[in-house]
Structure formats: structure tokens, C-alpha cells
Specification:
The protein is mostly helical and 195 residues long. The chain has one domain. It has nine helices and two strands, in the order H-H-H-H-H-H-E-E-H-H-H. The protein has a two-stranded antiparallel sheet. It is globular and about 55 Å long.
Length: 195
């Protein structure tokens, strides 16, 4: 029998999937507005996080309303939400629109599906992750690229880079920051190389 996904982790991943709407917002609003909105949101969440980490009243308030979204490992460090917004902001700032949108979707949908599939059906362990979760990440990322006007090499390279970035333990860095930067950088490189 497959293990159940803990409700708090399912809740976190549903929110993670929902943040894929950042990519839609980018297409609708354009680069400049998206940079402003993401910049303000990233700054606000960073200030809130620093307050939570340095002030017991702020930490108690945070715990009451947002504690369900916080993993025990995030109790004394920045949460994945801060890294997610920073990763999206950097993707929009550094990459052309199609690459930024794909990198953001890799981070939001690919990463979430890796976790959900890995928690539910993961049997073959790859460190703290699972082969099944990594395959789900790769398939979802590759499917995301289908409508993009990019070469097959760029699509495969981006999906592979996102999957490896999700799989590798990054220590103090969060994969929500690493996935869009690495996958976007790899796609940009393959495009520039004419691959």
C-alpha cells in the first residue's frame, strides 16, 4: 500500500502549484510590471521572514496563521516561499520571456510533482529524493516545454537541468532558487549555442 501524503505537505504543494500563476501574470502584464510586483513581494516576504526569525511576537503571529505551511526545518531559516519569489524575480530579470516562464513553471509545477509523486509512490531512493519523483519532475517539465518555440535540444536540456537541480541537495540554498536559475541558464546557453 502506498504511503499517504501528510496533509500539511499536500497543502504546501497545492500552493506551490498555484504559484505557477506567476508565469501567467508575466505573459499578461509584461516584464516591467512583473519585475515591480515580484520585487515588492520578495522584499515584503523577506522583511516578514526576518521579523519572524528575530522577534518572538512576530514568530507567534506567523505560527498562528501560516505555521501549517512551514516545515520544521524552516523554523530558524528562510522558508521556501521566500526563495520561490526570489527565484521567479531573478528568472524574469535575467532571461528572455519564454525561458523565464519555463524556468518558473519548472520550479513550481515540476518541483511540486516531484515531491507529490515521490512521497506517494517513491520506492527507489536517490539520497533524500526518489527516482519516481525525479522522473515525474522530468516528464512534467518536458510537457511544459511543448508549446514553446524552442529546439528539442533546448527543451530536453531545460527539463533535465530542472530535474537535476531538484534532485541535488543544495545545503543552505533552496531548490526554489536553484531550479529556475540553473534550468534557465542551461536553456539560454543551448539557445545561444544554436543547439
Amino acid at each position: 500500500m502506498s504511503p499517504r501524503i501528510p496533509p500539511e505537505e499536500l497543502y504546501r504543494k497545492l500552493i506551490h502549484l498555484g504559484t505557477g500563476s506567476i508565469a501567467l501574470g508575466y505573459w499578461l502584464a509584461g516584464r516591467e510590471i512583473t519585475l515591480i510586483v515580484l520585487g515588492v513581494l520578495t522584499l515584503l516576504i523577506l522583511v516578514a521572514e526576518l521579523l519572524r526569525l528575530s522577534n518572538s511576537r512576530a514568530a507567534a503571529l506567523y505560527g498562528r496563521y501560516l505555521g501549517i505551511m512551514t516545515r520544521p526545518s524552516e523554523a530558524h531559516r528562510l522558508t521556501g516561499a521566500t526563495y520561490l519569489l526570489a527565484g521567479a524575480l531573478l528568472a524574469v530579470a535575467l532571461f528572455p520571456p519564454v525561458v523565464a516562464v519555463l524556468a518558473i513553471l519548472f520550479m513550481t509545477w515540476g518541483d511540486a510533482m516531484a515531491a507529490l509523486v515521490g512521497l506517494r509512490w517513491g520506492r527507489i531512493r536517490l539520497g533524500r529524493k526518489s527516482l519516481e519523483g525525479s522522473l515525474a519532475c522530468f516528464i512534467v517539465c518536458l510537457l511544459i516545454t511543448l508549446p514553446a518555440d524552442l529546439s528539442l535540444t533546448t527543451k530536453l536540456a531545460g527539463a533535465t537541468a530542472a530535474t537535476l537541480a531538484e534532485l541535488v541537495p543544495w545545503g543552505v540554498l533552496d531548490d526554489n532558487l536553484v531550479i529556475p536559475l540553473i534550468s534557465g541558464g542551461v536553456m539560454l546557453f543551448t539557445m545561444a549555442s544554436g543547439l
